[in-house]
Amino acid sequence: MSIVVIGNGMAGSRLVTEIRERDREVPLTVFGAEPEQPYNRILLSNVLAGAAGPEQIGLVDRAWYGRNGVDARHGVEVTAIDRAARVVHASDGTATPYGTLVIATGSRSIVPPIPGTEDGLPEGALAFRTLDDCRAIIGAAEGARRAVVIGGGLLGIEAARGLAGRGLDVTVAHLAGHLMERQLDPGAGEVLARTLRRLGIRARLEAHVTSLRTRDDAGARRVTGVGLAPPDGDVPADLVVLACGVRPETGLARAAGLAVDRGIVVDGALRSVTDPAVRAIGECCQHDGTVYGLVAPAWEQAAVLADLLTGADAGARFTGARQITRLKAAGVDLVAMGETHHGDDDPGVEVMRFADASRGTYKKVVVRGDRVVGAILLGETSTAGTLTRLYDRAAPPPAERLGMLFAGVGGAQAADSPVRMPDLATVCHCNNVSKGQIRACWEKGARSVDEIADATRAGTGCGGCRDTVCGIVEWLGEQAVPS
């Protein structure tokens, strides 16, 4: 049974490597519309800021495909799916048969119908989604002094921080009343805005973008700013970055007659509800009414599907995932999970909150029915590991509630301290790697963070756990030194 994967991004490339770890023989072909080797999209903001090069965020080396007998079609886009013949047609003119087809096409950037974009984006206005987008923005930033980022969600904040890191004067224009309104409550959004101001980034909230201002430049339209509805007025800019959200890329699936709602509708085995020979994972699929926009659920889906397709675990099922948002950029450290918008007067919930806006700190924990159902940690995240474990397991909170906000209170230890961390504690949530797995890897001979990452993938997702992995490796080394 041949397997064909459409999409070689974070979900598709992960599935391919998971399959090869379980089965070395099954015929496997993967199409990637981008010519690049697969890369970590989460770390694009580091590339934008100049803190990392494109080569440092790669996920799978090109040579790996040849060594592992995978037919990788880099830079080749699938143009049509013929479900009756079980064949995919591609932009290079090929027709590739499949026994099982996996769609992992991800998402595409939303470019809203702003006046000034009718004939495409003018010079100096760019979307932020791919590595090519990132390179184009870096090129446009050279010689630019002022930038406007349209959109104050997670992607917009990452773009703004990257541009500020290159020395640009940055304004974020956001339609909602506070930043990252999907993940944060108003109090946290206000503290985040204040933190960004200290980093040279201004936020215009409740800002309705009415147009992109342009001028003629040698026959081409070049952006000169962003028009905002009164009372805001215009914001001048040499560079405009659109980070207005993403939409699941489902065009191929729709054209092939597959059931599509917001994403390709799949069951617990990640099968299309229309055609059992077609599966879907990642941002393009919809399971139990939910489309996941984070990497950890996509990688969990990849592991489940690899088990199913190779027979490693015929009973494997994707049952849903808890969504944890992490933002770790220079000067901004944020973890948000679950139900974060409850107020003190909400019946049936207990809310614990601490804010110190002058220091950029905001902490909130929401408990319902003796279970942690939501949390925000901004600025100081030492208890992130503890809260994530409580949230992941729907576990009861400790009797000393302050220990969830402040490490060391009521006997609570810093979440990232390896001394009291149990082996079952999850260190890398993107890859579901526990402290015990890191210890076992170290005992087998891995001695550096990079060697641990190669063996377990810990730290290769959002990168937020890398300091913790480093601490565990250092601690294990100290334990091995004879006294």
Automatic annotation (TrEMBL):
<dbReference type="InterPro" id="IPR007419">
    <property type="entry name" value="BFD-like_2Fe2S-bd_dom"/>
</dbReference>
<feature type="domain" description="NADH-rubredoxin oxidoreductase C-terminal">
    <location>
        <begin position="325"/>
        <end position="389"/>
    </location>
</feature>
<protein>
    <submittedName>
        <fullName>FAD-dependent oxidoreductase</fullName>
    </submittedName>
</protein>
<dbReference type="Pfam" id="PF07992">
    <property type="entry name" value="Pyr_redox_2"/>
</dbReference>
<keyword id="KW-0479">Metal-binding</keyword>
<keyword id="KW-0349">Heme</keyword>
<feature type="domain" description="BFD-like [2Fe-2S]-binding">
    <location>
        <begin position="427"/>
        <end position="473"/>
    </location>
</feature>
<comment type="pathway">
    <text>Nitrogen metabolism; nitrate reduction (assimilation).</text>
</comment>
<keyword id="KW-0408">Iron</keyword>
<dbReference type="Pfam" id="PF18267">
    <property type="entry name" value="Rubredoxin_C"/>
</dbReference>
<dbReference type="InterPro" id="IPR041575">
    <property type="entry name" value="Rubredoxin_C"/>
</dbReference>
<dbReference type="InterPro" id="IPR041854">
    <property type="entry name" value="BFD-like_2Fe2S-bd_dom_sf"/>
</dbReference>
<dbReference type="InterPro" id="IPR023753">
    <property type="entry name" value="FAD/NAD-binding_dom"/>
</dbReference>
<keyword id="KW-0274">FAD</keyword>
<dbReference type="Pfam" id="PF04324">
    <property type="entry name" value="Fer2_BFD"/>
</dbReference>
<comment type="similarity">
    <text>Belongs to the nitrite and sulfite reductase 4Fe-4S domain family.</text>
</comment>
<dbReference type="InterPro" id="IPR016156">
    <property type="entry name" value="FAD/NAD-linked_Rdtase_dimer_sf"/>
</dbReference>
<dbReference type="InterPro" id="IPR036188">
    <property type="entry name" value="FAD/NAD-bd_sf"/>
</dbReference>
<keyword id="KW-0285">Flavoprotein</keyword>
<keyword id="KW-0560">Oxidoreductase</keyword>
<keyword id="KW-0411">Iron-sulfur</keyword>
<feature type="domain" description="FAD/NAD(P)-binding">
    <location>
        <begin position="2"/>
        <end position="302"/>
    </location>
</feature>
<dbReference type="InterPro" id="IPR052034">
    <property type="entry name" value="NasD-like"/>
</dbReference>
